[in-house]
Amino acid sequence: MAVDLAARVETRTKLFNRVCLGVLIAFAVLWIGPVAWALDTALKPNAETTRTTWLIDNPTFDAFGRILNETDILRWFGSSLVIACLTATGTVFTASLAGFALSRLRFRFRRVLFWGILAGIMIPPQVLIVPQFREFDSLHLLNTFWAVSLPQIPTAVAVFIFLQFFDGLPRELEEVARMDGANFWRIYRRIVMPLARPAISAVAIFAFVTSWNDLLWPLVVLSNPDIMTIPVGLATVQGTFGIRYADTMASAILGAIPLVAVFLLFQRNIVEGIAGTGLKG
Amino acid sequence: MSDFTGSGAGLRRRDLLRGAAGLGAGAVLAGCSAPVLSGLGTGRESAGSLDFWNLFGGGDGVRMTEMLDGFRAAHPGTDLKAVTLAWGNPYYTKLSLATLGAKPPDVAVAHLTRAKTLIASGLLEQLPLDELARSGITPDKLDPTAWRAGLVDGKAYAIPLDTHPFVMFYNTDVCEKAGLLDSAGKLTSLDSAEKFTDAMRRAKQVTKTYGGVVSINGDSATPWRIFQSLYSQLGGQMLADDGAQVVIDRGKAMRVLTFLRSLTSSGLVPGGIDYQGAIATFANGQAGFYFQGEWEISTFQTAEMPFSMTLFPNVFGGGRYAVQADSHTLVIPKQPDTDPERRDRSLTLIKSLLDQSKTWAQGGHIPAWLPFRNSAAYRAMTPNSAYAAAAQGAVYDPQGWYSGSGSNFEIVTSNAVATVLGGQQQPGAALAQMRDQLLDLAGTPSPIEGGAR
Amino acid sequence: MSTTQTAVRPAAGASQPTPRPARADRHGLPAAGFLAPFLTLYLLFILGPAAYGLVMSFFDASLVQSGLGAFAGFGNYAEALRSADFWSSLWHTLWFTILTTPPLIVLALAFALLADRAARGRWFFRLAFFMPYILPSAVVALIWMFLYTPELGLLQNMLGHIGITAPNWLGDPDWAMPSLALTTLWWTLGFNFVLYLAGLQEIPRDLYEASAIDGAGPWQQIRRITVPLLGRTTTLVAVLQVIASLKVFDQMYIMTSGGPNFATRSLIEYVYDEGFTNYRIGYAAAVSMLFFLVVLTVSAIWFRIVRRGQKEI
Predict the structure, then answer these.
(1) What is the second-level CATH architecture of the domain A64-278?
(2) B199-242 pLDDT, tens per residue?
(3) Which chain B residues are closer than 8 Å to C62 by Cβ?
(4) How far apart are the first and last CA of chain C?
(5) For the complex shown, is ipTM > 0.85?
């Protein structure tokens, strides 16, 4: 009897799983649709884009060429890259140091600092754009990469990721090193950080992607098209293409390519890095 | 957290290297040498460069590009870089932020009514007359109304390129059948409330749908434009003391609103149509008259319909003509450093654009550059030259930090006027609403009071 | 998934047993050195501006004038609370949150449940659903504005084929916000999807096996085991989602500029407009502070609701 029941359940489960898969594939196709349509349109000549069809009579890369030649998109790539690298490096560096201190060192006000940094998670960055703009204005740093990057570097969430990771590391090695007279800087550099690669990659990826995609803050501080980031540049020139839809879609595809390429290379790491870090954000 | 940090899911060294290589390739791809890294410093672009910002899309954008190419051909030594930004508030926001952020364009386009706010905020360079004269720009060569409207304390900051008034488009076929054209094909006078209404009625008899059409729904400018045109024909004022006071003349405003309501309540003009709808109604021949800024000229030329244009009728003015208008001006935003050569290049560009007024006028705008406007070439442009007189009667939006093209002021007034045209509110109630909202704005401390920083 | 625990009860992480009971500030000097980079930037660019913003909100500060301007007391706050624009943009933000949160939770859960049953090709689903999430907002906006274009947009065309007259997506004040919500659903669903996938990994397989022996079908398993055990993930997803939705700015700024007729202007966009377009940074700072309060309040309320709901399960 039991065997019979189990077998019946199993066939039912198999059928159920198949239906599930079908539904899921349908949705996945739907989800890919917009990007596929953008790509399809970008490969048409502008004149063909007014017909709503997937078929392309004269496929061409001209739209991409025009965007690369006529807009500053290559410069925007450069800006985004420099800013995102600055931010990711700065975040990993400052947060790991702070996380290490909170995890390994005993000092007065530790608890106060801990809560002080934790409270920072509650402040949405959007709340600060007005005073931050004033601040960078008086520092004469508006329209520089520093203005975009510096406020993105101190990330309370990153500190806690490192803190937690360090708390989970065994301490025996460090004890031995301490006995040998190594100072904390050496322990941090030689022992702890090499073990912390998962945390480093998670924080770095999260900081990089967040910085790359940020719109509001760079929109406020980067007002010169020469040094805009990809999102700000695309948001600024949108509408100036008019009804040249192939060109518009080509600019969208080009704007998407760098991160998508990186994503395809490191899919798993990125998904886990973003999801894992986002948990705390 | 532990399930992702602890499970060895992180990057391996090989991955990191691969990533670094990928990023490096990206950097090379971006051609990121000196220009990109300029964002790390605070310096400016190299010598010989000239940045120009404008907000023109559509046909104006095409003509502006043509003019800029003209400049490039004549001045190959100057590396002109033109940027077109989205129209309206985003444009002025960006211009303000770039100027505050010490990376302004060298030359920019600004509506005259918005330039006034920029001037009061200390964001524009003053242009001394002798310097202008050296570049060949003198006040006597510019439209006097637009020139005077741009002065602040007698000083010049903005060089008018054109005047773009509210005008009347009319369907020549409809008007002919309605008996509104004289033997020479000229439209009869509509210069009184009775004549105006009568013309609408006769046009409606021909079209069987509407006499005239004006954009109302979801439009935060057109209702204001038609109201202001009529109201200023009566000599009415809206604001005083740089926007700190609301001085609406109730009697005059009521007269205008009642007149406007009479047009829609009698069915001569549709009371609820949006911008595109109004264009379509006129283009389809469902209305004999269409009221809008002259820039829609290209739309109807493209539609190849029988139409012409003339001054918005002087319904209430009697001897004096007045019509709502604004001007595109060329300005030099406050520069972070003094660079005489850069300044020279900027003024050369401004002069070059003025010299190409013929190209610009094709978009319907009345050129402010008198050497062209008084030429036979301009008089030969039809129907453009038919409404050139509007430039003298141009009434700019009242001065105030919240006023100007696309501003809160136009939004508030347009909304109120639209409710009257649509019949949702009586003129008295709408006027009270307009007044209350303007008082709110007037009572708000001005962010530009006290001038430059 | 234990992360939230740390975030909520940080003392747990902090109270690691130390090898030796020691003076509280035994490592005062090195600690200062290690903390200095982070704390300097944190004070300069986060806490400093936060305090400055609070001060600024009590003045009629202007973008184009130096200094703080005239003292306004609670004038800016009073003006915001009296302003119809403030309340309507607050409502738009809440309306957006209401429109996006439920589908972003329910669909993400559904997709994750389905994907969890797929024996093969999970990478493909992850790619399909998660990739939009890493696109910049501007790219998403450009693509969807084209999809929404009247007459020749793909969406109108597709709906036309099945006999539905498409609305004027972004042009109709009533449809503009739902259209932005649909775009956001497509864009950010992947994030919640991945969180749910991770949550599913944590459910012990033997629970399913045991219930299968008891004759429970797949649907019953989902209802009785999976969904209840995902409760904690759902709380997390919901809180993160609500907060993310409240901060919305990009989609409106690019796709509708807050229009048509201000029907989609969010609170953050209102701050941007008042501060940077109208130069009224004192007022904008006050609205920012009110926004901060809203975020804190909504997350506190939401947290309590979800917490209570969880206990009942």
Answers:
(1) Orthogonal Bundle (1.10)
(2) 999 999 999 999 999 999 878 899 999 999 999 999 999 999 98
(3) 447-448
(4) 19
(5) yes
